[in-house]
């Protein structure tokens, strides 16, 4: 059975996210209070589009029978996204909530209020800049390669924690780009389908590292990688 994800608010963001989730085998349900936005979203043909105000308790209560695994709030106003996530926690006790914030200062407050994940565009851009700076520094190391790997469902490392992977001694996974942003993995981090790994390795260990992660001999034409 496909996992259902409720997306509240947004138009372009909601459409892009719904398309991405659909390709991952999930079933997006969209709520938007704008009739015009709903008409645009219907063109994409998701599983369901509901024209209603997602900040109203009765709107989410009417969906109580739906087994949502996640609720994602993408409204323009931070306070609306917080309200949606708090309502979702009360109505769907086991659901994970994600809120978009435009003001970075609200991030810690949202987390204290019980929102599981808080996404801020400013924060994500900052991380990307930091990551690029890190890669620029690594270019100075002779014989070093940075390899980008797109992880697929059939790959050997899927659903494994980093500490379970016997990577070569001079190879590390420097970062992971996942649906909710870029982050530096820890030993307990689990590799998921759709992850993009940034692998830092040496010339001689690259092929062995890819073999461990992908479970197959790499096809150089299908791998995206950079040489330094």
UniProtKB/TrEMBL annotation:
Domain RCK N-terminal stretches: 2-119
The keyword NADP is assigned to this record: no
Signal peptide feature range: none
Domain RCK C-terminal, residue spans: 133-215
Superkingdom as given in the UniProt entry: Bacteria
GO molecular function annotations of the record: monoatomic cation transmembrane transporter activity
Keyword annotations from UniProtKB, A to Z: Ion transport, Transport
GO biological process, one term: potassium ion transport
PANTHER family: POTASSIUM CHANNEL PROTEIN 2-RELATED-RELATED, TRK SYSTEM POTASSIUM UPTAKE PROTEIN TRKA
Name this protein carries in UniProt: Potassium transporter TrkA
Organism: Dubosiella newyorkensis
């Amino acid at each position: 059975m496909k996992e259902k994800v409720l997306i509240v608010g947004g138009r372009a963001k909601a459409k892009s996210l719904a398309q991405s989730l659909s390709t991952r085998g999930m079933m997006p349900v969209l709520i938007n209070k704008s009739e015009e936005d709903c008409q645009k979203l219907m063109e994409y043909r998701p599983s369901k589009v509901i024209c209603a105000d997602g900040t109203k308790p009765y709107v989410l209560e009417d969906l109580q029978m739906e087994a949502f695994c996640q609720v994602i709030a993408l409204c323009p106003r931070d306070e609306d996204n917080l309200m949606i996530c708090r309502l979702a926690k009360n109505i769907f006790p086991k659901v994970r909530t994600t809120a978009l914030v435009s003001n970075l200062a609200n991030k810690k407050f949202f987390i204290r209020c019980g929102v599981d994940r808080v996404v801020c565009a400013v924060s994500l851009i900052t991380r990307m800049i930091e990551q690029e700076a890190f890669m620029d520094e690594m270019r100075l190391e002779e014989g070093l390669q940075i390899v980008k790997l797109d992880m697929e469902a059939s790959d050997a490392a899927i659903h494994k924690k980093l500490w379970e992977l016997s990577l070569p001694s001079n190879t590390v996974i420097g970062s992971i780009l996942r649906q909710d942003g870029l982050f530096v993995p820890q030993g307990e981090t689990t590799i998921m389908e759709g992850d993009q790994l940034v692998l830092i390795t040496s010339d001689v260990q690259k092929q062995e590292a890819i073999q461990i992660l992908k479970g197959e001999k790499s096809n150089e034409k299908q791998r995206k990688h950079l040489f330094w």
